[in-house]
Amino acid sequence: MPELTREYRPPFPTDIAGVLAPSRRGRGDPCLRHEDSGLTWLTANTVAGSATMVLRPRTDGLVQARAWGEGAEALLDGLPALLGADDDDTGFVAHHDAVAVARRRLPWLRLGSTGRVWDALLPAVLEQKVTSYEARRSWRELCRRFGEPAPGPAPQGMRVPPTPLAVRSITDWEWHRAGVDSSRRRPLVAAARVAHRLEDASELRGAEGRALLRQVPGIGVWTAAEIAQRAWGDPDAVSFGDFHVPAIVGHALLGRELDDEGMHAVLAPYFPQRQRAVRYLEAAGFSRPRFGPRHAVRDYRAI
Length: 303
Prior knowledge:
Elements: E1 4-8, H1 16-20, E2 32-34, E3 40-46, E4 49-57, E5 63-68, H2 72-77, H3 79-82, H4 97-105, H5 117-126, H6 132-146, H7 164-168, H8 172-177, H9 182-193, H10 195-198, H11 201-204, H12 206-213, H13 221-231, H14 245-253, H15 260-267, H16 274-283
Antiparallel strand pairs: 1-5, 2-3, 3-4, 4-5
Helix pairs in contact: 4-16, 5-9, 5-13, 12-13, 14-15
Keywords: DNA damage, DNA repair
Protein name: 3-methyladenine DNA glycosylase/8-oxoguanine DNA glycosylase
GO molecular function: alkylated DNA binding; DNA-3-methyladenine glycosylase activity; DNA-7-methylguanine glycosylase activity
């Protein structure tokens, strides 16, 4: 398979693993893998077809990229945006000490954009109202059974996310086997039917792009924000409705629990870059306090 290469020197400090962290679905993600050698492998569906890309950062700041597959050129063309070249934090002001400290500690933090709505939509819908463990298990299963093998010399087990056509072909019993209940399979199938139109959201960007995504039944504020954060690096797309995020923001900024209404109020001074403030807190290691009730892991395959 032909190999295409590209070199890119970001005009800013770059931590590839840190920038791509929001797009990685656990250590076993079959579509994004970091190796101890420093290589980062990722797969994607592009308008030209599937592709694999591997990134090698050098000590002098240069990023070397190689890619394979029908979509290799498209994936390489998107490398600067993927690493945050299109991100603009002009006007961002840290209104809380925790955000200010995180910003000083993390000069590399940028909001990368994949430019691909479908690849972000599929795992985001899988994460609706279930634990991360359940969602990642379903993600791995769907990629293994309905995604193509990664083009090129990718590490063993890497797959390309299932295409919209592949998702539309999944039968009810196969959804069940993957642990995906009907409340999540319905929006996935509905989105797969109009996937080509949903890609326009990454061009519209912002609130308009999120509104387009929400036209799909079953995709609400939370899911649209999760997609926007990854597909176009939306700096204001906060995941309202999340089980963890209000607690992270509340304890980091106020030292107490918050609900969505409280988080909306405390993040108001950061508009139109509220998600950037949240991302600083998450990347700095703030987390939900480990006490109180936990969600039980459900196995829909046994129901």
